[in-house]
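Hi L.,

As promised, YafY family transcriptional regulator:
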Amino acid sequence: MKLDRLLAIVVLLINRGRVQAKDLADTFEVSIRTIYRDIDTLGQAGIPVVTYQGMSGGIGLAEGYRLDRNVLTDRDLASIVTALRSVSTSHTNVARELLMEKLSSIVPEAKNEDFQADTNRFIVDYSLWTHPEALQNKLQIIEQGLDQLRPVTFTYCSAEGAHTHRTVDPHTLVLKKHSWYLYAFCHARNEFRMFKLVRMQDVTLAEGHFERKPVNPQDKPWQQEWATPGNTVAMTMRFHARVRHIAEEWFGIENVIPDGQGYYISQVAFPEDSWLYGFILGFGADAEVLEPLHIRDEIRQIAEQIVQNYTAPSQT
């Protein structure tokens, strides 16, 4: 609907400052001419849209313009409550619980039944199946560091099994593929790093305070670092039909191609480390690395060692 697009354009301009007309057209999948007509419509409605010329130009709003809070619909409030409830499944937060109560109280009593149905339409449960307490404690300590701008210290176990003591300035908590990560500025490495929470031990708040460095989470800087060509190795993998569904979950259904011989081929790229070897071996005999050859050799050597482990008599 045009009205929804107009409101969305205003929200984007408030949050991002200046935006190119082409970027707005791409976002809403309309022509640039349509975007300019929308801008004219907003101006006629009294919203102070400004067009800036030059290399750093674009479309923006007059400084200080804000939307009235009444612009939020009941469906908007339900979406916010659903998101807050989903985050709360991983760890409790009193302020978050109170915010959900406040938002729910805004809805008129006559619409409360529909509101509850909307908030229960789907549930995103981030909690672990077993022993969630350790993760909850880590998240709570890290959130304290985020709120108070205090460094966090911990012992970190790498994928290779090396233990190091780290002091970091926490900037962003990231939930990626069912696992929580901390994106933080590491004092020892003097750069931003990603730390997997399950690999962190003895997490505590450190003394002192830090100033946040410019990081835009919407740009997903951790994803950019991970996907840098120099950090990844391109592989061709073949999967048996038995694990096709698992391959599709990892790589996307469009990247799991039948080879005409009952198997499926995927072109994938991952950082090469012990995690990658374990990931490949997790498919058992239902997956094979076709290329590159050095990873085939590494997997074969690990598999041979596994055979030796189970061939030798157990120590009792």
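The two ends are 71 Å apart (CA to CA).

Thanks again for sending the construct details.

K.
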